[in-house]
Amino acid sequence: xxxxxxxxxxxxxxxxxxxxxxxxxxxxxxxxxxxxxxxxxxxxxxxxxxxxxxxxxxxxxxxxxxxxxxxxxxxxxxxxxxxxxxxxxxxxxxxxxxxxxxxxxxxxxxxxxxxxxxxxxxxxxxxxxxxxxxxxxxxxx
Length: 141
Description:
Elements: H1 11-28, E1 35-38, H2 48-60, H3 63-68, E2 70-75, E3 78-79, E4 83-86, H4 90-93, H5 103-106, E5 111-114
Parallel strand pairs: 2-5
Antiparallel strand pairs: 1-4, 2-3, 2-4
């Protein structure tokens, strides 16, 4: 588990700090993170099968493509979460700021992977939303 002491500075800073901490931890162990799977905490209904599908697609890519890719699930053509980034994105993710997250980084670079998971679109912004049977738009589009 990683603790972000700068979370009040926004989603971008939270993601940047997590990438920096995890990269340092992996480097200390002699490793390089192979990829980043960004899963917003306010999307509790993402299916494990969706994550497995993204990783399966990622693993089948040639190594050079794997390092540069950005993959996200789509349910009935609508982009969802999580977003999987290849390792070449580490430096860019570590410089994020503000509340936009990685949205500006991935414009025009995202590959959608169709999944049968409406949970990849279910965004919960209030406790009441957990009891509302709706699928909402994701934070990134």
